[in-house]
Amino acid sequence: MIQLFIILALAFSKPLNPKKVLYAINCGAPSNYKSPSGIQYEKDIQTDPETVVADYSLNSEVSSQQIKYTREPEIYLTERHAYKTFSYQIPLQKEGTYTLILKFAEMYFDTKGKRVFHVKFGSQRVIEKLDIVAKVGKYASNDEYIEFEYIAGQVFHNNVLCVDAVQDGKLQVNLEKTKFDNPYIHGIVLYAGGISETDYEEYQYMKENWDKVINEEKIKEEYERQKKSEAKVKRKERVKIRNDHLNVVENEFEFDDQSLSTSVPVVKKVGLKALITSPFGTAGLFISFFIGMSILNKIMSTISNAKIKGIEKDITESKPKQEKQIKEKNDTSDKKNKTKDTKDKSKAKQQ
Predict the structure, then answer these.
(1) 302 lies in some domain
(2) DSSP H helices in the chain
(3) Is residue 139 part of a domain?
(4) CATH number at residue 42
(5) Which residues pair with 138 in a beta bridge?
(6) Residue 50, helix vs strand vs coil
(7) Rounded distance, CA 224 to CA 233, Å?
(8) Which residues are CB-contacts of 103 (< 8 A; sequence separation ≥ 6)?
(9) Can you list the residues of the chain whose pLDDT is less than 70?
(10) Which of 68, 149, 208, 253 has the most CB within a 10 Å radius?
């Protein structure tokens, strides 16, 4: 049943695409604001000295009220109004179809007919006798969607030319005063595309079925909360199962303290860091170091002695050979001398 309600809620959910929002102003606000839907509203830089800012967030009686028909109540907590007609200039870029969304909410009057004014593009009225309380009551958003065409530097609304609507590449949005109090506004959004591409249908559905929408969103929030809670429980179960498995594996390598308490002691796992930093571990390292150095010295000494013995052996073996060669050389020389003497004697006898 819960899933059915969520499906119905999502079927009517078509939020405004923030990527197609070209310009947005949070009227009366001193700082920028990013809405939950991702729209980046710029702070109000209106310089008309005859306009007035009202910040209802400073009034706890007003700020504590639920503003109906919106998921962006912060936009309606600040407004700009004037005791005369005043205007905003909205920058336009390339030609095409646009939708201007003007955001209103009555935060002061609670009776219709108290505040009535017109909205104009230049000198052309695009909304006449706007009475917010008459349309939605107090503490409720009333967003006006105005589709227009921007062609060759001129603006057309419902195929009617809006005279003087564009000045220096900016759309002149005039809030025209009547005898019924002062014109005002809370927010402005310029959207690239016609009304059918905006969230207009969702907004109308929300106004007509506000209580149902609120209930659906509460159900959806509860459903999401339950999902997160269930996911958290499952994560804990997975961690518990993993830890239990590790404990079983560790127990397989441990001795039973009760059965072997009188024989072999249980060897507890000790981390390398703990072992090294312990007194016994430090002493063991020093002892191991000295033993290692002693062994290394013995090895080096053995290698050195072996080299010396090898050299002596070579000298010993080579000495008899040298003597033998010298003797053989001397014997050969004696033979040659004897042969020469014999020849000399023989030659002397013949003479």
Answers:
(1) no
(2) 2-11, 60-63, 132-136, 200-208, 210-252, 272-277, 279-350
(3) yes
(4) 2.60.120.430
(5) 106
(6) coil
(7) 14
(8) 27, 75, 76, 141, 143, 185, 186, 187, 188, 189
(9) 1-13, 248-284, 306-351
(10) 68
Residue 147 lies in a domain: yes
Q: Domain count for the chain, please give it.
A: 1
d(CA 102, CA 80): 13
Q: Is residue 310 part of a domain?
A: no
Q: Note whether 167 and 101 are within 8 A (CB).
A: no
Q: Return the ∠ at Cα 152 (arms to 149 and 155), rounded to 5°.
A: 35
Tokens of 16: 């405004």
Predicted local confidence at residue 329, as pLDDT:
66
Residues 6+ apart with CB under 8 A from 96: 149, 150, 192
Q: Distance between CA atoms of 301 and 303, rounded to whole angstroms?
A: 5
**DSSP output for 242-304:** HHHHHHHHHHHTS--TTTSTTSSPP-----HHHHHHSHHHHHHHHHHHHHHHHHHHHHHHHHH
How much is the CA Rg of the chain, to the nearest whole Å? 51
Range of the domain at 125: 16-208
pLDDT at residue 47 in the model: 85
Contact present, 158 and 121 (Cβ < 8 Å) = no
Strands 124-130 and 160-161: unpaired
- Give the relative orientation of helices 200-208 and 210-252 as an angle to the nearest 10 degrees: 100
Please state whether beta strands 40-43 and 21-26 pair in parallel, antiparallel, or not at all (unpaired): parallel
**Could you give the count of Cα atoms lying within 13 Å of 240 in the half-sphere of its Cβ?**
6
Partnered with residue 52 across adjacent β-strands are 81
Residue 142 contacts residue 136 (beta carbons within 8 Å): yes
Instruction: Look at residue 312 in the predicted model and tell me its pLDDT.
Output: 59
0.70 cut: is pTM over it? no
